[in-house]
Amino acid sequence: MQIINYKQVRYNLVARCVAEPGLALGVHIPSPYDRALGHQILMTTIPSVTSLATSLGEFPPEAVIFGRSEVMQSLRNRMDKVASANVPVLIQGESGTGKDIIARMIHGLSPWRTGPFVKVNCPAIPGTLLESELFGYEKGAFTGAYGSKPGRVELAHRGTLFLDEISELDLGLQSKLLQLLQDGQFCRIGAQEDKKVEVRVVCATNRVLEVEIESGTFRQDLFYRINVVNLQMPPLRERKSDIPDLVAYFLEYYNRKYNCRARTLSGDLMSALQKHHWPGNIRELENLIKRYVILGNEEVISSDLVAHQQEYPTLDLNFDGPIALKTITRQATRELERKVILKVLQAHHWNRKQAARALSISYRALLYKIRDAGLPPNRSSRRRIDPLPPQDVAAD
Ligand SMILES: Nc1ncnc2c1ncn2[C@@H]1O[C@H](COP(=O)(O)OP(=O)(O)O)[C@@H](O)[C@H]1O
Ligand SMILES: [Mg+2]
Asked: Which of 49, 128, 132, 324 is the most buried (most CB within 10 A)?
């Protein structure tokens, strides 16, 4: 790792690689604040993701990442094959399935591994800022643009640009990205001429982009461009045979990290983990074990699991009387619908337009369903409803 002067770096080099809290490795783009602090950024060259990770003791070993399940083995083969080719990769999968990790591994296995890995978490940057963050701007491009600034696309030159939650890009930015993917060219805001960069683009999403295309919020031509190779991350409930190894890994990791001595889980608890639905996938499992290590008793885990089971109730049928199938299914569907709508509203900070888009229904239909389900109409009154059982899933 080497410290270099920011001015020397100009716009086309690197960022700072730091260990993120949690397990993954992260990249930090120097902010104006960083630069003010002595104009220095750290430049890291990555010989290989695994060796860097091992040296930091932060990245899970490959045996843990891929486990034993067949589905992960074939994902690994696919990833190995595509990593070295300069083609865009789309990683799809539910939240917490490891999309970030895989994106970083692809970079670490690629010929551009010594270049920067620049992550852009699209929903985390407000829409109006996203264009300047991504593509940069020239002096005077807009009020307050006192100097020129490179975007993250430029910072990723000769490296990997990782666009997380790609479905959050608005249609205008989607066309700029399309141009970048077609000919490697883009234009800073306010610039007269296009610039050219060499970047490997990796995108991730937890949405079904085909649905977004149907609803007109995602460009089909962009989808074809980013989806040259598709890696589908399986949810944890489809690779339950990997749970014991993951548990052992997180237990050891957090025992070491917090200097604790939490014991191996009992057989009963392990089988409860195997039965759990894992809506938050590996992130949920990791948080669960972290809590267990810190708090030190199995009851913590058991009560968490029970709380979640309420979301996936077991069916209790009374065979003494008639079983009204239609009524039962209608009620169950309504209850499930209520929960899904509530979760999606919460995930979108109660923005009903975004929630309607995510649910692939019209805005009017969502308003109707909110009223029908007895949910509060907006953010200010949302506290009046019964909260759902706590979710383990930390926001990414
Ligand atoms: N296969 C895996 N093995 C070990 N830990 C994993 C694995 N996949 C994900 N994790 C851990 O789970 C958490 C969520 O992973 P992440 O890659 O951020 O998921 P996503 O991007 O799909 O939401 C991270 O702390 C990560 O280190
Ligand atoms: Mg992620």
From this structure: 49
Does domain 2-232 correspond to CATH entry 3.40.50.300? Answer: yes
List residues, by chain if needed, whose CB lies under 5 Å from ion ligand 2.
99-100, 396
CA distance 390 to 238: 23
| 347 Cβ contact partners less than 8 Å away, ≥ 6 residues apart | 355, 358
**What are the tens digits of pLDDT across the range 124-154?**
888 778 999 999 999 988 888 899 999 999 9
pTM (two decimals): 0.69
CATH number of 325-384: 1.10.10
Q: Determine which residue's CA is closest to atom 8 belonging to ligand 1.
A: 98
Give the closest ligand to the alpha carbon of residue 280. Answer: 1
- Rounded (10°) angle between helices 99-109 and 70-83: 40
Token reading at 367: 């308003």
The atom number, within ligand 1, closest to the CA of 164 reads 21
Domain 237-309 listed as CATH 3.30.70.1450 = no
Question: Which residues contact residue 260 at a Cβ distance below 8 angstroms, ignoring those fewer than 6 apart?
Answer: 254, 293, 294, 296
Query: Which amino acid is present at 389?
Result: P
Instruction: List every span in the chain annotated with CATH 1.10.8.60.
Output: 237-309
Out of 23, 287, 289, mutate this one to test ligand 1's pocket (max ligand atoms within 8 Å of CB): namely 23
Residue type, 313: P
Q: Nearest CA to 135 among 99, 90, 88, 169?
A: 169
Q: Which two tokens stand for residue 324?
A: 């009204």
Whole-number pLDDT of residue 343:
85
**Ligand 1 atom nearest 97 alpha carbon:** 22
State in Å: Cα 97 to ligand 2 middle. 8
- CA gap 384, 373 in Å, rounded: 14
Q: What is the DSSP letter of 85?
A: S
